[in-house]
Amino acid sequence: NAYIKHIIGEPFGTITGRIQATDPSGNLIFDDQGRAVAAPEFVPIGYGVAPWAGGLNNAFSYKNFSLEFLIDFKAGGDIFSGTNLRMTQNGKTEQSIIGRAGETPLHITGVTNTGTAEAPVWSPVDRDLSPYEAQQYWGRLGDQSNGISSAWIYSGDFWKLRQLVFGYNFPRKMLANTPIQKVNLSFVARNLWVISKHIDNVDPESAYSAAAGAQGLEYFALPSTRSYGFNLSIGF
Known about the structure:
236 residues; mainly beta; five-stranded antiparallel β-sheet; three-stranded antiparallel β-sheet; 2 helices; elongated
């Protein structure tokens, strides 16, 4: 459904895929069953490498206690979500509820070809799909041969509370008559909180491959693991 390509004149790590086809007037094309029709060519649909990344590290201390936290972010990149594609195809996402019986109808607006491939006649389409047609619509949207790749492009922007460290320095008087000069005990937690993101169901840092230049593709990757632990530091 999507490929990472390095194209002359485009940013490094360009995500390419199919978009929905349009008629000469720019109207979206649907088939006679209400399914989106894909344009045949693979074109740039996103950029997998975020141009902006950074963080904010703060440290505070009061008497023998200390608190340090790190917030980091990425901005400007995109992600193609194979997870959302497959889950929607199988009716496992909130998005796929649209169009089901008793739910909000799935409405399409565009044109359909009532002529032939050689002599198309573009007739207006502006209607709700039946529950069966909606199921077919979501299924086709993620189809490997005829799907709309651009439907599964999301912003890869995020802010995360990456690390929190709460420490205590033991008083020097407790270390008297010992060769130990300093003892610090810290509680450390990592990947605590996704403060904000723009993609449902998956971690925006998920990646299909760790290969260089392959950023921007995601397919059922495990999210970052939250961890907790203690550090004991002893100085002589």
